[in-house]
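Q: Please design a sequence for this.
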């Protein structure tokens, strides 16, 4: 595959917010793995095969407490079920990447999805290559930080409690930015309402999946209603 330098440079600049978020989070993960008794090789292997930051943090505690394998698998599936909803909206775009289609599915994260949603590509930038470059860069950022954290684990003895809020802060920033430039805010409002209700009903540990499900159902109903209204007017 021939490298598109212009698209590559634009993807790199666009992915810098992910870089700063991922480096801190992945370094902290590497340190946590080291403190749990696993050196940088193990932390790199986990990031290489699992590649889901939130669950990787939970996995550290599971490894320390010798949690049953079935519980680990169930938790991983449940915590990342939101990707099922994310991925649906980008199936066709990912297919345009050709042989990289499976990789695009595997490498989809909260942060790359947020960046894809906020794409405002200038003329001359290849959309498919842009998404591929962002996906590759994001993974390199995470893997690199994981190794650094694993190597530094024996030297740094800090309390990293709360560092995972970097991920939340990134999404809040993106939401505020899109709120300012977008006139149609029904998607953000729908997600906020469904998320808040699900949080109170299902609790902090179980609200993500039902919140995503309710949001998707409401948006599907809204879309069908608008399409029907458009057809009636025509």
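A: Design:
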């Amino acid at each position: 595959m021939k490298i598109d330098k212009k698209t590559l440079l634009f993807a790199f600049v666009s992915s810098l917010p992910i870089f700063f978020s991922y480096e801190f989070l992945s370094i902290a993960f590497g340190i946590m793995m080291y403190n749990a008794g696993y050196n940088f090789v193990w932390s790199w292997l986990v990031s290489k095969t699992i590649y889901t930051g939130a669950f990787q943090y939970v996995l550290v505690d599971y490894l320390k407490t010798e949690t049953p394998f079935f519980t680990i698998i169930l938790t991983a599936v449940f915590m990342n079920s939101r990707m099922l909803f994310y991925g649906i909206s980008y199936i066709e775009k990912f297919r345009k990447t050709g042989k990289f289609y499976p990789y695009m599915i595997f490498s989809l994260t909260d942060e790359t999805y947020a960046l894809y949603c906020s794409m405002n590509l200038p003329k001359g930038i290849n959309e498919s290559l842009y998404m591929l470059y962002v996906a590759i860069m994001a993974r390199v950022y995470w893997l690199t930080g994981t190794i650094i954290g694993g190597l530094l684990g024996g030297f740094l003895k800090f309390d990293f409690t709360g560092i995972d809020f970097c991920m939340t802060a990134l999404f809040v920033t993106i939401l505020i930015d899109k709120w300012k430039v977008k006139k149609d805010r029904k998607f953000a409002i729908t997600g906020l309402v469904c998320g808040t209700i699900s949080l109170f009903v299902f609790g902090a540990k179980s609200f993500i999946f039902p919140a995503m499900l309710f949001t998707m159902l409401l948006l599907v109903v809204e879309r069908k209603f608008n399409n029907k209204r458009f057809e009636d007017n025509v």
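Q: Thanks. Anything notable?
A: The CA atoms of residues 36 and 63 lie 8 Å apart. DSSP finds 13 helices and no strands in the chain.
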